[in-house]
Specification:
The chain has 356 residues and is α+β, with helices and mostly antiparallel strands. 22% of the residues lie in helices and 29% in strands. It is built from nine helices and 15 strands. The chain has helices at residues 5-9, 17-31, 40-53, 56-65, 90-97, 106-110, 136-141, 285-290, 348-355, and strands at 128-134, 143-154, 169-171, 180-187, 190-197, 206-208, 220-231, 240-243, 258-264, 271-273, 276-284, 292-298, 301-307, 316-319, 334-341. Strands 10-11-15-14 form a four-stranded mixed beta sheet. Strands 1-9-8 form a three-stranded mixed beta sheet. The chain has a two-stranded antiparallel ribbon with strand order 2-7. Strand 4 and strand 5 form a beta hairpin. Helix 2 packs antiparallel against helix 3. The longest helix has 15 residues, at 17-31. The radius of gyration is 38 Å and the shape is flat. It starts with a helix and ends with a helix.
């Protein structure tokens, strides 16, 4: 039965070379047998279809006679190409040599299977996260706290070089000073060579003649460090403070970050809402009717609040510029919600006075 290569790739008969190439790339990504959920049969069909339709001569023969002089597609089941089970990729290179895959960068398709990007990543240490309990007043006005954490840090003796102070360096005997070593791997195209950082010299190509006695040449070591944490004003419970470069160190790279999750202790009087501080104030019925003065404790110290005559239950009094700092010379307000306490029992005398 004749195979419809156009249907296999999902393109129409008038498709140009770019459309055919794009269709094959999509199917190769989807059905490659080395990827989860791959399908070797469909992958072979797509490869066979592309090998014919990507070659002008073979495509013309196929369009005219329904077949091509060489429509094997280069992908036959077998026991070749070790490392890929019973899937044989041996013909792939042959098709490329015959022009079946001209101008087609198969590295774009399978790059994610073999490490992907060609650009080398800068090494980076691990991020650290810790929890820190702070007072309510510290969350409002900000604070500076010193904390001790145990982490991998740059060696204070050799400053990360791994060499004994005053010692010179020599060429790494593992990579011969190149900083990288070659590895041979097998792929669907056969054997290929890759490079990776030399673990002996950490990519520098040099090793110390004498190792640092403190870190034993590692350049980093576990230690207890004191870190100063500056807590900004106006932070909320659960907010994160990030200290760049205060995480785990790694030789030959940059340190990770330190993330500090703040846990703000509850205040017995105030609660924060934006830049304002909210509180409830219980007043007696007589104070609400006649007015009075009440002393309250604020974060700035004691403060006298005037209760106006005839204040209503639930009414809010505002004390300006005693709330959360919002700038160098500006602050939010304190909002006081009045709760009038109605007496549950009255003496006979009191009842008579109220009735009158």
């Amino acid at each position: 039965m004749k195979k419809d290569y156009y249907e296999i790739l999902g393109v129409d008969k008038g498709a140009n070379s770019e459309e055919i190439k794009k269709a094959f790339r999509k199917l190769a990504h989807k059905y490659h047998p080395d990827k989860g959920g791959g399908d070797s049969t469909k992958f072979k069909e797509a490869s066979e279809a592309y090998s014919i339709l990507s070659d002008e001569k073979k495509r013309a023969e196929y369009d005219t006679y329904g077949k091509s002089g060489n429509n094997s597609g280069g992908y036959q089941g077998g026991q070749g190409a070790g490392g890929f089970g019973d899937f044989d990729f041996s013909g792939f290179a042959g098709q490329a040599e015959q022009g079946g895959f001209q101008d087609f960068d198969l590295g774009d398709i399978f790059g994610d299977l073999f490490g992907g990007g060609r650009k080398e990543r800068v090494k980076r240490g691990r991020d650290i996260s810790i929890d820190l309990a702070i007072l309510f007043s510290e969350s409002i006005f900000g604070a500076e706290r010193k904390i001790l954490i145990t982490k991998t840090s740059v060696c204070s003796e050799c400053k990360g070089s791994g060499a004994k102070v005053g010692s010179d360096t020599v060429t790494c005997d593992i990579c011969n000073g190149k900083g990288r070593i070659h590895e041979t791997k097998r792929s669907i195209f056969g054997t290929f060579s890759t490079q990776k950082e030399c673990a002996n010299c950490h990519g520098t190509g040099k090793i110390p003649r004498e190792k640092c006695h403190k870190c034993r040449g590692a350049g980093v070591l576990r230690s207890e460090d004191e870190i100063v944490v500056k807590i900004p004003s106006g932070v909320d419970n659960g907010e994160m403070v990030r200290l760049g470069g205060a995480g785990e160190a790694v030789r030959g790279g940059t340190a990770g970050d330190l993330y500090i999750k703040l846990h703000v202790e509850k205040h017995p009087i105030f609660r924060k809402e934006g830049s304002n501080l909210l509180m409830d104030l219980n007043v007696k019925l007589t104070e609400a009717i006649l007015g009075s003065e009440v002393k309250i404790k604020t974060l700035d110290g004691d403060l006298i609040v005037k209760i106006p005559e005839g204040v209503s239950h639930g009414e809010v009094l505002r004390i300006r510029s005693k709330g959360v700092p919002t700038g160098r010379h500006s602050r939010g307000d304190i909002m006081i919600k009045i709760n009038i306490q109605i007496p549950t029992k009255l003496s006979k005398t009191a009842k008579k006075i109220v009735e009158e």
